């Protein structure tokens, strides 16, 4: 959530900046509500003062032995008027709050205008697209005969956009999880955390998925308003909701493996082939909560932590700074890591590393105590996938395929797979 003071004082500037995100802020509606709020608040305060004055007069008149009935009637009348004004003020503030909670985070100054991924800015690349002496297959064709990547069985069990992995692919999936957790916890200093896979409405509101993106979530059908997590970002970041973190504990760095559940309502018809876009998938997520002055550098560091995984696996990739039209609701700046997929002959997103500044923290009231002032202040939150497991598996299959249809196992993973060097289909 944006600072309400900023909205009141710099409304036009905010509206201009949000257009980079393709968001049109209803300036006139906010101005009208704000004008009414001020007017009603002045009336409310005036009535309160007048009522207090008359209330004091009752005591004075009573002490003198005067008739207090007229004064009591006046106070009662003022009380009724005051209740009406308070009710009106609450309605106006509620309307303002509804608008404010639906306003996206402001894009960072480095974010350029653009409509979609084709307008993202290339920052750097690592490795060259894999060269083959044969025509490479995509991951579906590679695994179809073996049945180790089974979409039909999953459709029978659950429906479309699910997959069942068996044998060496299930083992590689598990190996990737362990490899990523080991690197981030042992080398990058993240504390491993295990969290619930079901969260309440407050948690999703805190990180910005609600109220706007409810259609993309899987909601449990009971009265408790519980949801399957769309990403570990939600439960892990909410770990500090309504907390004040001591300065000496900062930064908080967590790594979390979890399944993720997304209905993909806004992506109907996209990437229906294979494992690229699933209703259930797994990720290893990095989450940091930091002091405001550290967040820009932390964003660079966190992105590099995700890049290390791709480099160790020998997978060609590039890093792009998302344009305004491709930037998420809550993010101020996002770097996407895009891995090369020979089967599609293109780069595809495998990680998003985002800086939310104090946007999520204000929604969650997540703070740290500044030792210089002794006062609590909003902290900054960041997260990134490091990495999406299914897409990493796909990238290995397609980049390490061999002419005979087998797949070489990246050297870094071989010890996690019992010393195996290839997967035979």
Description:
The structure is a single chain. By secondary structure, the protein is α+β, with helices and mostly antiparallel strands. It folds into two domains: 26-101, Helix Hairpins (Orthogonal Bundle); 117-423, 2-Layer Sandwich (BirA Bifunctional Protein, domain 2). The chain is 40% helix and 20% strand. It has 13 helices and 17 strands. The strands form five sheets. The chain has an eight-stranded mixed beta sheet. The protein is elongated, with a radius of gyration of 28 Å. The relative contact order is 0.14. The model has no long low-confidence stretch (mean pLDDT 95).
Average of the residue pLDDT scores:
95
CATH third-level topology of the largest domain: BirA Bifunctional Protein, domain 2
Radius of gyration: 28 Å
Order of helices and strands: HHHHEHEHEHEEHEHEEEHEEEHEEEHEHE
User: What general outline do the C-alpha atoms trace?
Assistant: elongated
Low-confidence residue ranges = none
Number of strands: 17
Strand content: 15-25%
Query: What is the name of the CATH superfamily of the largest domain?
Result: Bira Bifunctional Protein, Domain 2
Strands side by side in the biggest sheet: 1-10-11-12-15-9-8-4
Helix content: 25-40%
Q: How far is the N terminus from the C terminus?
A: 50 Å
